[in-house]
């Protein structure tokens, strides 16, 4: 049906990375010769053409602007347009005032909500800190209780005697349920 741009040509084309053909390897591409006199004439004619077109565009633009200006001056003189403009400006001012009131009310509500959320967060943090402090106090009390049974230089001899009097055997095997299966005899 025709050539589609997405279809890659299969024959007759070379990729950009293919080397030139052997018969074209030594060929130098030279631009066609240009007559300098003809070039000057053509450049001058193009310059004149651009000047003429620029002048025509400026003339048309000035004409259009003059028509718009005359039309606007003709409309501004009418009293109905002035009255309509005043009425629309009054409506616009009322609408702006209404929107300003709505915006201020919304901002006030958002500020109150933000303040309430901050207070809730602060209360949560205070409760969390209080619970943390209670937990730490409990840990300190527990450590103080455990410290009563620590071995110190003063009670070292008594603890050694107690361990020698009550030997313990830690050499035993347990099954998957955690029961002691086999225990060796103390020697």
Note down, in words, how this protein is organized.
This protein is mainly alpha-helical. The protein is 64% helix and 4% strand. The chain has helices at 36-76, 79-147, 156-165, and strands spanning 172-174, 180-183. A two-stranded antiparallel sheet has the order 1-2. A hairpin with a 5-residue loop joins β1 (172-174) and β2. The chain starts with 35 loop residues before the first helix and ends with a strand.
Distance between the termini: 102 Å
Number-wise, the strands total 2
Largest sheet: 2 strands, antiparallel
Q: Walk across the major sheet and give the strand order.
A: 1-2
Helix content estimate: 55-70%
State Rg.
50 Å
Structural class: mainly alpha
SSE pattern, N- to C-terminal:
HHHEE
Beta-strand content: under 5%
Envelope shape: elongated
Organism: Tachuris rubrigastra
Biased composition (Basic and acidic residues): 95-113
Main location: mitochondrion
InterPro entries: Ribosomal_mS26 (IPR026140)
Helices and strands in order, then pairings?
Elements: H1 36-76, H2 79-147, H3 156-165, E1 172-174, E2 180-183
Antiparallel strand pairs: 1-2
Biased composition (Basic and acidic residues): 95-113
Protein name: Small ribosomal subunit protein mS26
Subcellular location: Mitochondrion
